[in-house]
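Hey, weird one. I pasted the Helix-turn-helix domain-containing protein sequence into the form twice and got a warning about non-standard characters only the second time. First submission, copied straight from the form history:
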Amino acid sequence: MNKPLLEMLPALRALATPQRTKIMDWLLDPRAHFPPQIDGDLVDDGVCVGAITEKTGLSQPTVTTHMKTLEAAGLVTSQKIKNWVFYKADRSALADLGKAFGSAANRQN
């Protein structure tokens, strides 16, 4: 493995569960997957953890753990609005992940 791919290991581990991968997919197109929110814009501010919890059918502590894993891996950002945490995909981190694999695939042996 080359170094850029090794640097992506936390992100790859974070995406290694179906639930987190599904959540990331939803966050990449939040208007298609979540209803409008009272507080915070789905795209500009992110999706409320309560909406993610409702959509997944998982418990709020489980969703919070998933979201903290994605955030620690650098795949999402969070902000607090009132009493809720809102998450949105970090598109530049995902682009970097894609570039790392593209570079590795294009390397000559």
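That's the output from the first submission. The warning seems to come from a hidden character in my clipboard, not from the data itself. The chain has one domain: 5-100.
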